Amino acid sequence: MSQTRRACVVLPILACVLFCCVVQLTAQSVAPAEARAARAFDEARKQGPAALRAFLYRMPKGGDLHNHLGGAVYAETFIREAGEDGICVDAATLRMDAKNHAPTCPPPESPAKDVPANQHLYDALIDAFSMRTFVPVTGESGHDHFFDTFGRFGDDKLFAGEWIDEVASRAAAQNEQYLELMQTPSFAGAAAAAEKLGWSDDLAQLTDNLLADDGFRSNVKTASGEFETALRSRAGIEHCGEPEAKPGCSMTVRFLYQVLRGFPPEVVFAQTLLGFEVASADPDVVGINFVMPEDGYISMRDYALQMHMLDYLHGRYPTAHITLHAGELSEGMVPPDGLKFHIRMAVELGHAERIGHGVDVIYEDQPGELMKEMAERHTMVEVNLTSNDVILNVKGNEHPFMPYRKAGVPVALSTDDAGVSRIDLTHEFVRAADTYPLSYHDLKLMVRTSIEHSFLSGASVWERVTPEKLETPVTACRGQLGAGKPTGTCAALLQSSEKAQQELELERRFRTFEASY
């Protein structure tokens, strides 16, 4: 072979080798830290849940997107605040009674401020307000005990900044960065207007009539005022913006307007319209959600009707985000036909961008096709492993967590009602890692999913592909995630996008965390 021909063969091979080496070195400049963290995770898993918790507590966890504010507060806080409010507690029924105030508590009630001095009553109230020590017995299931806790609180400090401070501080301590808190502000004016008008199938006319009602309009202002007051109170408690700012200030907090689905149709519609109005006017309210037990009589009877309400109002408020409790059901809770359509209807008719729980998906008509559709639509599932266990008795391989992942449906872990369940988000990560064959990289992608599917405004830094991976940045930000201050078009993207800012912060946190191994 001539020297010329030999050069023609060897040089391309050498160029290829050099190119491959450059690519490998470039990848290794980032990959080794993640690989070390992955090995530490695998070792922690071998050692058991305690070691897993130590690892996962520090790991960045992004956002908690399914979090009821009232259910996130621990019972001890309710008891303390009830004492500060001067309200009474009924030792016989284990309920707070905000209608009566100390010192004139009618027997058998007593001042809540005296509860800590009575250890037996104190313990009984904590057990009644949460799932602590709960054991199912005939006549009281985990489902019933869980949902009954909300009617026992009775504290007139509802929606106080102290609650947000507690939840945000706990989240910040375990390396979370974003919360979407569900809460139902006062809607008495909207309900009164709805009851006066009554139900009508003419949703356009019903909407116009409600919007023209002074009581309804006043509720839009008062609802936004409640959110604003709570955030201002929280900022004061945490000294946000001051030199002595507390760690909780690092948490970005937004709200989801809770609609109580267990009311008559006209009241549910009025609440939903109110939620869309508030979410369209208040930047702190990023979307709406329907709550209350999905197996309740009205919830089941009116489910399709409520999805039609959402379909109509989505047409009038197309930019308002929607996430829905759907499929928070299990076999035997309702007749078989009641398991066949809730998730599909929420996605296709209710315009849900995210589904909360989604536990009964395997019982839906054509579940495989439904999950394929959800993957193609990028409809995320908010997975709440502990509450699905204690409420629905669904856990382990009975849970559709792995089928969703196999189908390419985006999933992220969340807490649901951390105070009632006596857990935190780290607990849910430990439970997932201890139950399912998840790698460190799997967990990392789920964390990214939580921010990607938040209802924060603006574009994402990730290319959206199907099935969703969140591994390739958009062209503008390639090579700039987690490594210094972005420049050029990536900087411009971040300037215009709250979501992109949170995604960049998440990558910075992962870089710091992984560098510690």
How is the secondary structure organized here?
Blueprint: H1 3-28, H2 31-47, H3 49-58, E1 62-68, H4 69-72, H5 75-85, E2 87-90, E3 95-101, E4 109-111, H6 119-128, H7 142-153, H8 161-173, E5 176-183, H9 188-197, H10 203-211, H11 214-238, E6 252-260, H12 265-281, E7 285-291, H13 297-301, H14 303-316, E8 321-326, H15 342-348, E9 354-357, H16 367-377, E10 380-383, H17 385-392, H18 401-406, E11 411-413, H19 418-421, H20 425-435, H21 440-452, H22 488-496, H23 498-515
Parallel strand pairs: 1-5, 5-6, 6-7, 7-8, 8-9, 9-10, 10-11
Antiparallel strand pairs: 2-3, 2-4
Structure write-up:
The strands form two sheets. An eight-stranded parallel β-sheet has the order 1-5-6-7-8-9-10-11. By secondary structure, it is of the alpha/beta class. The longest helix has 26 residues, at 3-28. A hairpin with a 4-residue loop joins β2 (87-90) and β3 (95-101). It is globular and about 65 Å long. The protein has two domains: 62-69 and 159-458, Metal-dependent hydrolases (TIM Barrel), CATH 3.20.20.140; 77-141, no CATH class. It is built from 23 helices and eleven strands. It is 52% helix and 12% strand. The model is unreliable at 1-30 (pLDDT under 50).
The residue-averaged pLDDT reads 91
- Using the 3D structure, state the CATH architecture of the largest domain: Alpha-Beta Barrel
| Oligomer state of the chains in this structure | single chain
Tell me the total number of β-strands.
11
